[in-house]
Amino acid sequence: MQIFYGKAALMDYLSTLKTTNTSIGFVPTMGALHEGHQSLMLQSTKENEITVVSIFVNPTQFNNPEDLEKYPRTLDTDIIKISNINPNIIVFAPTVDDMYEGKTLSQSFDFDGLENKMEGKFRPGHFDGVGTIVKRLFEIVQPTRAYFGEKDFQQVQIVKKMVEKNHIQVAIVVCPIYREINNLAMSSRNERLTLQEREEAGIIYKILSEAKAKFLNNSAEKTTEWVKNKFNKNKTFTLEYFEIADESTLTTCKRKSKNKKYRAFIAVFVNNIRLIDTISLN
């Protein structure tokens, strides 16, 4: 199995494999891999001759130092999981110094306002960090296709906008959310939950599903108020935000339109651990 810890070595190796018609699939991750990540890798191996998986906990997209410090790092286990999927997958696990060359700073991006909604509103600078690292990874790997999970829907829209504005030749492939038995969206942060918290966290998707049903016959405002009331009565989970927005622009829904696709977005805290989820509403 090929594992690279520096970008120069990876770029040299990929240059020896690439021909005019060789397709490269790329799965960027922050490690602590779960079945959702594994599904992205499987799709990439089916659709491309070469698959590269990066494992890099990117410091510039964390606005909370405690979250960065406690983010699970399980590189040895991750490599075993990747090998079990397909030993031909190339692993890229760079250091912070290698990626940032001693200057751990974000580039500033204009994402046409997408960065100011929801996650961007509550995590200042987060999407500049995401844009910076994804752009650098794309420059290193030069993938044909890059695979992202739908759970981070806003992030996917941000990446698409970054690709469009920088004229990067890569297709962004969005893959379905993988869920645990209780429908909690799979996330590396789930590893930080206690067994009881993890079990009870199924309520997030339950409320999302009920909100979807309510939205059919109610306004976005009434549906949002209903969700807020549900969490106000819950002592374990603290709602950071619930928002119904236009899928393409991420603009908050004020009045429903038949011609638009809407999606609900949610962020919830349990014992200082932040969980997000999303669901299509039509």
UniProtKB/TrEMBL annotation:
What top-level branch of life does the organism fall under? Bacteria
Task: From the Swiss-Prot or TrEMBL record, state where the protein is found.
Answer: Cytoplasm
Instruction: Kindly name one Pfam family recorded for this protein.
Output: Pantoate_ligase
Record-level Gene Ontology MF annotations: pantoate-beta-alanine ligase activity
At which positions is beta-alanine bound? Answer: 61
Kindly identify the residues recorded as the active site: 37
Similarity remark: Belongs to the pantothenate synthetase family.
Q: What is this protein called?
A: Pantothenate synthetase
Taxonomic source organism: Flavobacterium granuli
Q: What is the lineage of its organism?
A: Bacteria, Pseudomonadati, Bacteroidota, Flavobacteriia, Flavobacteriales
The gene is panC
